């Protein structure tokens, strides 16, 4: 399988079937990350895998959750 970078609409991503840990939306770290994503976009990749007609998140659940909270529609850095 070939690794590649794609820009995906946020509505094409789904939470994993089994969550390894919950997102604490009240932690200082999460709130700072959410504010950074709102101001600058996502600066790190999310790792996903195809699952039916969507992509399942493998790594980056906190970034995905924060991006949804701030209203991002496509997960990429605005400067790209």
The portion of residues assigned to helices is 25-40%
Largest sheet: 3 strands, mixed
Instruction: Report the radius of gyration as a whole number of Å.
Output: 12 Å
Please name the CATH topology.
Answer: Conserved hypothetical protein from pyrococcus furiosus pfu- 392566-001, ParB domain
Strand content: 15-25%
Number of strands: 3
* Structural class by sheet pairing and helices: alpha+beta
Level-2 CATH architecture: Alpha-Beta Complex
**Which CATH first-tier class would you pick?**
Alpha Beta
Question: Which helices and strands appear, and what pairs or packs with what?
Answer:
Layout: E1 13-14, H1 28-40, E2 47-51, E3 54-59, H2 61-70
Parallel strand pairs: 1-3
Antiparallel strand pairs: 2-3
Helix pairs in contact: 1-2
Describe the structure.
The protein has 80 residues and is of the alpha+beta class. It has a single domain (1-17, 24-80), classed as Alpha-Beta Complex (Conserved hypothetical protein from pyrococcus furiosus pfu- 392566-001, ParB domain), CATH 3.90.1530. 29% of the residues lie in helices and 16% in strands. It contains two helices and three strands. It has a three-stranded mixed β-sheet, with no helix packed on it. A hairpin with a 2-residue loop joins β2 and β3. The two termini are 25 Å apart.
